Amino acid sequence: MQASAGFVSASALGMACGPALAGLLQTDFKIKNVTFNQDTLPGWVMAVAWLLYLVWLAISFREPAREPEEIHTSQESTSGMELKRNRSVFYYILI
Predict the structure, then answer these.
(1) Does the residue 28 lie in any domain?
(2) Vertex 53, ends 62 and 3: CA angle to 5°?
(3) What global pTM score does this model have?
(4) Does position 22 have pLDDT exceeding 60, yes or no?
(5) Are 37 and 28 in contact (CB under 8 A)?
(6) What confidence tier does 6 reach under pLDDT thresholds 50, 70, 90?
(7) Per-residue pLDDT tens digits for 37-70
(8) Would 82 be classed as within a structural domain?
């Protein structure tokens, strides 16, 4: 329920802020040979936003420590019923 409410709120915020942001991006200027207008400016804004996100992620992300996996070996033979159960789980995962 909380995730659904967050999704609806984000959608409503996007529908309200999207046209307002598009109105702010209705400009036309040039820096050297790069043209910024209503067609190219949204792409530049998103490129800068993704670059800032990438920098933030590179600074703040920490890989969690992993525990070494234990290898279990069994000398006992597998019964037919257990083998059949393992196959059905494998087929279920493939589907």
Answers:
(1) yes
(2) 80
(3) 0.51
(4) yes
(5) yes
(6) very high
(7) 888 888 989 999 999 999 999 999 888 888 887 7
(8) no
Q: Classify residue 22: in a domain, yes or no.
A: yes
DSSP element (H, E) containing 50: helix 41-60
Is the Cβ–Cβ distance between 25 and 38 less than 8 Å?
yes
Q: What is the mean pLDDT of the chain?
A: 80
Q: Does residue 55 lie in a domain region? A: yes
Structure-token pair, residue 82: 């257990």
- The domain total for the chain is 1
C-alpha dist (Å) from residue 24 to 41, 56, 71 = 10, 26, 59
Q: Spell 31-68 as b/e; 16+ CB within 10 A means b.
A: eeeeebeeeebeeeeeeeeeeeeeeeeeeeeeeeeeee
